[in-house]
Each structure stands twice: as structure tokens, then as C-alpha cells.
């Protein structure tokens, strides 16, 4: 006799979630950017996120916001993300076992048609009930090399944009019943 496991679906609470990136400009200042439109979905075997069987993230490149229209347009151009040909940044992982509050998750990140396996540090912030909905919170962090994804633009002879991109997400998921 086999035991059936019910899959629980969780989706982003967009009003209480954010996806940001930070990069050094000219080695002098750190620029912060947001993806204003993104979605995370997770499937779990339980409400405590001890076993996540599927995780997916999609972020719209057109939603990049760095508080500078000129810079945002440049980031969407073929020099960087090439939003016309690659409109989304994607992440997927097929297994996550949480043993402690802070865990490493590996998954495939796809930017500009290039996919790389990357580690994410995931902090489980807990579960709460809000207006009759069950919600779970996570803080997710990583650092990637933009060159690994074909994002190599710099002014001729200068290092305008650092190679290391810090990514941080604060995500609240809502259980879908």
C-alpha cells in the first residue's frame, strides 16, 4: 500500500515581496535595482517547508527599475539584458530540504538565454496567518558574476559596472487552497 502525498501550492504575495539587485558603479557607489514584476511559485509536501518539491521564479526584464529611466533603458538594451529577445529572468530548483532556518538551495538561473547552476542562501522566516490566509516568509541571497551570463558591457577601457551582482529577495508566499 503506497502513501499518497498531497502537494501544496504557494504563490507570491506581491504586495509583501521584493526582488532587488546591487552592483558597484565605477567602484565608487552601489546602485540598487528592483524587478517590479516577478512571481515565485513553490510546491511543498507540508506547511512547514521541510520538503519543497518544486520552486520557480520568473522576473520581467521590462520591469527593471533603478530610479533612472536612462539607465533602465540601457539595462533593457542588447548591451545588457536584451529584453526584446530575452524578456524574462528565470530560476528553477526541483528539490529543497530545509534542515535549519538558514539553508543553501541550488538551482538553475537563466539570464539572456544562458543557464547556470547557482547557490542561494535561503532563510526561512516562518509561517503566519493573515486575513485567513496562510503565509510563509523567506529571505534569499546570492552573488553572481554577470559575465557568466553574457552581460559583459563596459565603457571602452574602463570598468564601469562591477562583475559581481548581489541579488536579494524578500518573499512572502501565500498557500493556495
Indicate the structural class.
mainly beta
The CATH class, by name, is: Mainly Beta
Number of alpha- plus pi-helical segments: 1
Principal-axis shape: elongated
How many strands in all?
12
Biggest beta sheet summary: 8 strands, antiparallel, barrel
Number of domains: 1
Distance between the termini: 27 Å
SSE topology string: EEEEEEHEEEEEE
Strand residue percentage = over 45%
- Low-confidence residue ranges: none
Named at the architecture level, the CATH assignment is Beta Barrel
Radius of gyration: 18 Å
Strand order of the largest sheet: 1-4-5-7-9-10-11-12
Helix content: under 10%
Question: Could you characterize what this model shows?
Answer:
The chain has one helix spanning 69-76, and strands at residues 8-12, 18-25, 29-35, 38-44, 51-60, 64-65, 88-93, 96-97, 102-111, 114-130, 133-145, 164-176. With 177 residues, it is mainly beta. The chain has a single domain, classed as Beta Barrel (Lipocalin), CATH 2.40.128.110. An 8-stranded antiparallel beta barrel has the order 1-4-5-7-9-10-11-12.
Annotation keywords:
Lipocalin; mainly beta; 177 residues; 8-stranded antiparallel beta barrel; elongated
Short synopsis of the structure:
This protein is mainly beta and 177 residues long.
